[in-house]
Amino acid sequence: MAGNVADNVTDMYSSLRSNVSMLGQILGDTMRTHLGDSFLEKVEQIRKLAKDSRRGDEAARKQMLELLTALPDEELVPFAKAFNQFLNLANLSEQFHTISRNCDELVCVPDPVEQLLGRMLNGRIDQTKMLDCLKTLDIDLVLTAHPTEISRRTLIQKYAAIVDCLAEQENNQLSDRERRQINLRLRQLIAQIWHTNEIRRERPTPVDEARWGLSTIEESLWHAVPDFLRQLNDQVQDRTGQQLPIDIAPVRFSSWMGGDRDGNPFVTAKVTQEVLDRNRHAAARLFLKDIVLLVGELSMEEANSELMAFTNNSCEPYRFVLRSLRQKLRDTIDYLNARIEGHNPEVDKSTLIWQESDLKAPLEMLYKSLCDCGMRLIANGLLLDILRRLACFGIHMLRLDIRQDAGRHCDVLAELTRYLGMGDFNHWDETEKQAFLLRELSNRRPLIPSNWQPSADVAEVLNTCRLIAKHPAKALGSYVISMASKPSDVLTVLLLLKETGCTHPMRVVPLFETLSDLNNAAECITALLDIDWYRGYTKGMQEVMIGYSDSAKDAGVMAAAWAQYRAQEQLVAVCKQAGVKLTLFHGRGGSIGRGGGPAHKAILSQPPGSVDGRIRVTEQGEMIRFKFGLPKLAVQSLALYTSAVLEATLLPPPEPKQEWRNCMERIAQESVSAYRGIVREEPDFVPYFRAATPEVELGKLPLGSRPAKRRVDGGIESLRAIPWIFAWSQNRLMLPAWLGAGEALQAACQRGEMGLLQDMEREWPFFSTRISMLEMVYAKAEPNLARYYETCLVPTNLHHLGETLRQRLDLGIKVVLELTKSDTLMAHTPWNRESVKLRNPYIDPLNFLQTELLARTRKETTEAPASEHVQLALMLTIAGVAAGMRNTG
To answer: Are 410 and 425 in contact (CB under 8 A)?
Structure first.
């Protein structure tokens, strides 16, 4: 199967090339055993023809298309599966290469924390200032479900086992027998993968998605967090001679899985309750495993007076404490099992691990005793790892955010005020709303009558608020309000929480996501902070979420990026003026069109002062796996985040020059005009989009728990940002990630601003990051493939629009190459360029087959529906293209 894949990779990546070839060969052998030589030969023939077609061989392209269209129904699924799995194995090899002992120096850059400490402590930053900043870093990575995360959990576990085998193979001391055993294990794993159905038969539930997130922690992050902190401590100690606190947690984790109900009717209060119980259950189970191991390790007798007194002079004082914790954790697991099964057992809280101190206090007592008795070496082993896991994950594992649309909260009050004879809240102006809300927030009597019977939708919002009131603050993160635009949107949630008995001050976070909302964000927060009652509630802390997905869908990436930048600048100034600490929550997706890209670059390109030691960032399904799916990869990602936030805080980027701002303002205006001129004003755009991409078919696939649209009867404006981008990545045009940018840059050049643009690209991290991201999507775009989709699937009268879009793509590529003074895209990032090249001969046949399958399914009738083979093969092609493109949503 791998064939001459080496042709696609340069010699400097020999280790990667070797692993790709080996895994591809094993996959080919598996197919041969299962389907015979003739099938494998056909697959290999199509692969080679695809490769020749890429080189401009029209005869090869024609022959490849003939072979693909002639595939019988029974060969559709195994063919799609073959190319899909090769791409997954190529991804795996590439992931492993970045953590391999044989990693090429162009790929494996030196540790970012080590580099940063060297720069900082070389006279630029005071050591004490650096240590204080490091100890107070607050980086919150928020794991979110991904409607286009295709890979099933069972396959992800098998991929992880393959990586373990690749790591074992790097041991030069292996005997021939040991090498044969590893090879046998690889063949077994790839055979298991081949014979496993890659596509879920049913749409996952929100609980399924939450369990997927927990599996990433259990299999990777649980191990990576203490490894990273030990590495960080060693680096700091080497540079400063000081050790980090035992409870340091620069990076923590939250989740939206099971809490994000915006447009998802399947996330209910009952679901959220189950997810909270499962999160806590997972933490108790993992801590129990650690405590069982620690009982075996801490067999020593010597202890300090505090521990001896606590254990009544036990001969094994450490084990005495640990055995008690072990039993409490077992009882906690039993209690949570009962809750998950739907029971509500009576319990004596003193017999369980009910709050974090129940576990933390006794473990810290053991740690102090060991250190007091000269056994710091032992204390800094597994016991320290457990304490640091506790600092990071707590006893609830993930802090669960709640997200709901602003309109749902207003509807609650509108229904209530109508019932009370006060009028309709939704018909009041902003001044009337604020006056009512503040009056009720200060009023001690209940607003909600006990005999009121609200509608089902209103009852669900209130049930969610009552659920929040029942749970401790440490189990929950923020309450995020989608489509927030006014101070009343925040005050409404605060009133609902008060009326449902919530006594802890939950962070209520407005999410500004459209272009107009971003432009008005600072005005809204200014008005909020001018309210005395609200200022008192915040206790000097304000969190604001910046939406990348919907702003880009609304205005295009260039205008959205500038609006996000300006909104952050203004919010920083507003909060500074009010004496309030601002935490910005970045709602980024995996794709470039949704704010994705390298996290390190993204953080360092934020406005100066906008990070200030605190940041929240969403990490979505596929990117969770790519960044945190393997322990060593996770350690690298944690180091990247920590170094970026530390650097952005202590060595912030320069303020942009006024001429740069003026130029960017013109670019933003021209880009949004060009973008909306197509997406909103071109009458043929929506029918072209739905014909040229698998957008309609994506909505039918069992990919995620959340519907593809916020409203079932809505048009393009109601389509969620993720499927919007995912659909365009499938036909390889990548339109949302570049439309409008090239036209605006070209206009700047025509004004004679090329020199200015080059200064901005060289000296302004914000602008250079945007250009770098444009290069990446331009390199991934394939206009010829997009034209093929058009030829096969789009009515002839709409072809003019496809030609216009491809011309605009070509314009953007040319202006970016001129700007960067390069002959090829991504010339400065050869690893990324080679990564794209490596995959193309395997993605292309899937794209060509997908068009054939889309044509077949669209011709289906009630009397002659598409066969099960066709439907499953279509899903596999979508999965395969997603695997090859990687950052698809």
So the answer is: yes
Show the CA angle centred on residue 467, arms to residues 466 and 471, nearest 5°.
115
- Tokens standing for residue 70: 């002639």
Q: Do the Cβ atoms of 625 and 655 come closer than 8 Å?
A: no
What is d(CA 353, CA 359) in angstroms, rounded to the nearest whole number?
7
Cα of 361 vs its chain's centroid, Å: 34
pTM score of the predicted model: 0.91
Separation between Cα atoms, residue 302 and residue 318, nearest integer Å = 9
State whether residue 61 is helix, strand or coil: helix
The catalytic residue positions are 146, 553
Q: What is the mean pLDDT of residues 270-280?
A: 97
Token digits for 158?
Answer: 């098998």
pLDDT at 199 (0 to 100): 77
Q: Is the dihedral of CA 682, 686, 691, 693 positive or negative?
A: positive
Say which amino acid occupies 285: R
Pairing of strands 399-405, 507-512: unpaired
* Exposure string for 270-283, b = 16+ CB within 10 A, e = fewer: ebbbbbbbbbbbbb
Which residues fall within 8 angstroms of residue 129, CB to CB, at 6 or more apart?
Answer: 650
* Among the listed residues 172, 26, 205, 162, the one whose alpha carbon sits nearest the alpha carbon of residue 101: 172
CB 45 within 8 A of CB 67: yes
Whole-angstrom distance, CA of residue 58 vs CA of residue 43: 19
Q: Is the pLDDT of residue 103 over 70?
A: no
Strand pairing partners for 260?
Answer: 403
Angle among Cα 142, 521, 671 to the nearest 5 degrees reads 90
DSSP state of 709: B
Q: CB under 8 Å to 8, separation ≥6 — which residues?
A: 51, 834, 837, 838, 840, 841
Closest to 809 measured CA to CA, from 795, 791, 825: 825
For residue 234, how far is the Cα from the chain centroid?
A: 29
Per the structure block, which two tokens stand in for 261? Answer: 């109900």
Closest listed residue to residue 553, CA positions, set 734, 403, 713, 719: 719
Structure tokens at 324: 């008690």
pLDDT at 626: 82
d(CA 412, CA 424): 10
Two tokens at 545?
Answer: 């979420």
Q: What are 519's two structure tokens?
A: 């432009």
CA distances from 109 to 99, 101, 104, 246, 492 (A): 11, 13, 9, 28, 48
CB 638 within 8 A of CB 228: yes
Q: What is the pLDDT of residue 838?
A: 73
pLDDT at position 593: 41
Give the integer Cα–Cα distance in Å for 592 and 736: 9
What pLDDT does residue 722 have?
65
Scanning the structure block, which residue is given the tokens 């084990």? 319
Name every residue whose Cβ is closer than 8 Å to that of residue 868 and which is 6 or more positions away in sequence. none
Name, in order, each residue with C-beta under 8 angstroms of 676's C-beta and a sequence gap of 6 or more: 555, 556
* 195, 33 Cβ separation under 8 angstroms: no
Residue 585 pairs with which residues in a beta bridge? Answer: 545, 616
Say yes or no to pLDDT of 6 above 50. Answer: no
